[in-house]
Amino acid sequence: MAGKGTKKSAPDPLSLATSATMLWVESCYVIWARSWMIMAGGPGAAKESQRMVAEKVQASQELMMQAMTGSLGSGMVAAQRSVDHYGRKVSANRRRLAKTK
User: Fold this and answer.
1) Could you tell me the sign of the dihedral formed by the alpha carbons of 4, 64, 59, 27, in that order?
2) For the chain: N or C, fewer Cβ within 10 A?
3) This protein's superkingdom (predicted)?
4) In which element (H, E) is residue 86 found?
5) What is the pLDDT of residues 42-53, one digit of tens each?
Protein backbone atom coordinates (compact mmCIF):
# COMPACT_ATOMS: atom_id res chain seq x y z
CA MET A 1 0.00 0.00 0.00
CA ALA A 2 1.30 3.46 -0.83
CA GLY A 3 2.35 5.67 2.05
CA LYS A 4 0.90 9.09 2.76
CA GLY A 5 1.95 11.57 0.14
CA THR A 6 3.16 8.97 -2.35
CA LYS A 7 1.54 8.40 -5.69
CA LYS A 8 -0.12 5.01 -6.03
CA SER A 9 0.52 3.25 -9.33
CA ALA A 10 -2.29 2.10 -11.58
CA PRO A 11 -3.90 -1.13 -10.42
CA ASP A 12 -2.89 -4.35 -12.11
CA PRO A 13 -4.96 -7.53 -12.45
CA LEU A 14 -3.03 -9.36 -9.71
CA SER A 15 -3.52 -6.53 -7.19
CA LEU A 16 -7.21 -6.35 -8.03
CA ALA A 17 -7.59 -10.12 -7.67
CA THR A 18 -5.77 -10.06 -4.33
CA SER A 19 -7.93 -7.20 -3.03
CA ALA A 20 -11.11 -8.92 -4.22
CA THR A 21 -10.05 -12.18 -2.55
CA MET A 22 -9.37 -10.40 0.75
CA LEU A 23 -12.77 -8.71 0.51
CA TRP A 24 -14.37 -12.12 -0.06
CA VAL A 25 -12.54 -13.74 2.88
CA GLU A 26 -13.36 -10.92 5.28
CA SER A 27 -16.97 -10.84 4.07
CA CYS A 28 -17.31 -14.54 4.87
CA TYR A 29 -16.17 -13.90 8.44
CA VAL A 30 -18.52 -10.92 8.86
CA ILE A 31 -21.47 -12.93 7.52
CA TRP A 32 -20.61 -15.83 9.84
CA ALA A 33 -20.21 -13.59 12.92
CA ARG A 34 -23.39 -11.65 12.23
CA SER A 35 -25.37 -14.82 11.55
CA TRP A 36 -24.42 -16.29 14.92
CA MET A 37 -25.13 -13.00 16.69
CA ILE A 38 -28.57 -12.73 15.10
CA MET A 39 -29.41 -16.41 15.69
CA ALA A 40 -28.46 -16.07 19.36
CA GLY A 41 -30.99 -13.28 19.73
CA GLY A 42 -30.91 -10.81 22.56
CA PRO A 43 -30.79 -7.03 22.53
CA GLY A 44 -27.74 -6.89 20.26
CA ALA A 45 -29.33 -8.98 17.50
CA ALA A 46 -31.94 -6.45 16.43
CA LYS A 47 -29.44 -3.61 16.64
CA GLU A 48 -26.91 -5.53 14.52
CA SER A 49 -29.57 -6.34 11.91
CA GLN A 50 -30.53 -2.68 11.61
CA ARG A 51 -26.90 -1.62 11.49
CA MET A 52 -26.15 -4.18 8.78
CA VAL A 53 -28.90 -2.90 6.48
CA ALA A 54 -28.09 0.77 7.12
CA GLU A 55 -24.38 0.21 6.41
CA LYS A 56 -25.11 -1.59 3.14
CA VAL A 57 -27.40 1.19 1.93
CA GLN A 58 -24.91 3.90 2.91
CA ALA A 59 -21.92 2.15 1.33
CA SER A 60 -23.75 1.57 -1.95
CA GLN A 61 -24.98 5.18 -2.06
CA GLU A 62 -21.46 6.50 -1.47
CA LEU A 63 -20.07 4.37 -4.28
CA MET A 64 -22.96 5.26 -6.59
CA MET A 65 -22.25 8.97 -6.08
CA GLN A 66 -18.59 8.43 -6.94
CA ALA A 67 -19.61 6.59 -10.11
CA MET A 68 -22.15 9.25 -11.09
CA THR A 69 -19.72 12.14 -10.58
CA GLY A 70 -16.89 10.39 -12.40
CA SER A 71 -14.58 10.41 -9.37
CA LEU A 72 -14.54 6.60 -9.35
CA GLY A 73 -12.69 6.53 -12.66
CA SER A 74 -13.09 3.79 -15.23
CA GLY A 75 -11.81 0.33 -16.05
CA MET A 76 -9.31 -1.21 -13.65
CA VAL A 77 -9.12 1.97 -11.57
CA ALA A 78 -12.88 1.94 -10.96
CA ALA A 79 -12.82 -1.76 -10.14
CA GLN A 80 -9.96 -1.34 -7.65
CA ARG A 81 -11.57 1.70 -6.03
CA SER A 82 -14.88 -0.17 -5.72
CA VAL A 83 -13.23 -3.17 -4.07
CA ASP A 84 -11.22 -0.84 -1.80
CA HIS A 85 -14.38 1.07 -0.84
CA TYR A 86 -16.23 -2.05 0.27
CA GLY A 87 -13.05 -3.55 1.68
CA ARG A 88 -12.64 -0.70 4.18
CA LYS A 89 -16.23 -1.14 5.35
CA VAL A 90 -15.96 -4.92 5.67
CA SER A 91 -12.58 -4.73 7.46
CA ALA A 92 -14.01 -2.30 10.00
CA ASN A 93 -16.92 -4.67 10.64
CA ARG A 94 -14.59 -7.66 10.96
CA ARG A 95 -12.49 -5.86 13.58
CA ARG A 96 -15.57 -4.70 15.49
CA LEU A 97 -17.26 -8.09 15.44
CA ALA A 98 -14.07 -9.89 16.48
CA LYS A 99 -13.99 -7.77 19.66
CA THR A 100 -17.55 -8.72 20.66
CA LYS A 101 -16.76 -12.42 21.09
Assistant:
1) negative
2) N
3) Bacteria
4) helix 75-99
5) 888 999 999 999
